[in-house]
Amino acid sequence: KTHIWLDCDPGHDDAFAMILAAEHPNLELIGISTVHGNSSMDNVTTNALSLLTAIGKTDVPVHAGSCKPFMRPAVHAPDIHGSSGIDGTTLLPEPKVTMRSGNAILAMYEAIMKTPFQTCAIVATGTLTNVALLFAAFPDVVGHIRCVSIMGGAFGGRDDARGNITKWAEFNIYCDPESAQSIFSNPELSGRITLVPLDLTHTVLATSDILTTLVTTSHPTTKLRKMLHDLLTFFSKTYADVFGITAGPPLHDPLAVATVIPGDEIEWDMEEVQVEVVCHGEQTGQTIKTPRDQAHEQVRGEGLGKAGVNPVTWIKVPRSVA
Ligand code: BDR
Ligand code: CA
Predict the structure, then answer these.
(1) What are the DSSP E strand ranges found in 58-110?
(2) Which has the closest alpha carbon to 51: 20, 5, 76, 79?
(3) Which Gene Ontology molecular-function terms are recorded (predicted)?
């Protein structure tokens, strides 16, 4: 089994990421931290606790993390997720548990270090403040984890998959570009970061057929199924209203969980690139990739002239966008 620590900002699609992480037989969800993003810290934390209550997984510890990036104010997305961060249903239960006390970054560190060496994946489906702080405060965790899988970024490989918060930037990266850049340029993580950008998530839509399947046919319609149907219906509407995407909303966040599922259930076609994040000006939050063949020349050229070795951080991205 792969152990997972999920850092998230639920969020309609984060809800599906949580369910996949909690229910997949080859994954063991060891804890959840919440981060500013789709809504306020209070809202996203309550949403995480309600969702765990809805699926009967109240034993998974939930810690409230950073309520803002350390270099800029927080940005939320009420136009996409509603003012609660997860509008659209009356079926979310009151949380049966409360969040755990204590510092979230320390809790992440302690829980992850208890897992066997290189078996734990950190999956980040929100802004990257908590994960960047974890690596900065506890550098030894970097060698201990197996990998980090991040929903974030947009490379513009498909016309409808450029930015979603600005024309250049994807929301999770835009909200805290400095934290993203600190992770993407950490050479200790080279080869162990996977980025799931909009270019990929916009090919995985929750179509009306999928919504219908949730509540009909061979399955008995449980309250949970009805709630998930409500959530996707709301998400479909905001995607149609805000982006004009009418085929169904992209289900971004569960894909970041899917990349760490052990086994060959899904065939991933990834390639390694370097990723830079724009941290200033109107293009803030844009992710720019350099493919390995081009980057190699730069690194070799500079490296030979200087110290001989340039630490490079290779990041896996879906090949179709590289
Ligand atoms: C990302 O932004 C959030 O609104 C979603 O939950 C997802 O993590 C997509 O850009
Ligand atoms: Ca999210």
Answers:
(1) 62-64
(2) 20
(3) purine nucleosidase activity
| Ligand 1 atom at shortest distance from the alpha carbon of 198 | 10
Indicate if ligand 1 lies below 6 Å from the C-beta of 313: no
Q: Which atom of ligand 1 is nearest to the CA of 126?
A: 8
What ligand is nearest to the CA atom of residue 79?
Answer: 1
Q: What is the model's pLDDT at position 322?
A: 43
User: Do the beta carbons of residue 111 and residue 117 sit within 8 Å?
Assistant: no
pLDDT score of 221: 74
Centre of ligand 2 to C-alpha 302, Å, is: 37
pLDDT reported for residue 216: 85
Neighbours of ion ligand 2 (CB under 5 A): 9, 11, 14, 125-126, 253
Helix (H) or strand (E) holding 8: strand 2-8
Alpha-carbon gap, residue 275 to 318, rounded angstroms = 13
CA 202 from centroid of its chain's CA atoms: 14
Q: Note the ligand closest to the C-alpha atom of 9.
A: 2
* Distance in Å, CA 128 to ligand 1 centroid: 12
pLDDT of residue 320: 66
Q: Is 125 in the pocket of ligand 1 (CB under 6 A)?
A: yes
Q: State the Rg of the chain over Cα.
A: 19
**Positions in the chain short of pLDDT 50:** 305, 322
Q: Which residues are catalytic?
A: 252
pLDDT for the residue numbered 266: 85
**For the chain, how many helices (H) and strands (E)?**
13, 9
Half-sphere exposure in the Cβ direction for 26 (13 Å, CA): 10
Name which of 85, 78, 174 is nearest 129 in CA terms. Answer: 174
| 281 φ/ψ sector (left φ>0, alpha ψ -120 to 50, else beta) | left
Please name the residue that has the structure tokens 């996977």: 194
Residues 319/270, Cβ–Cβ less than 8 Å: yes
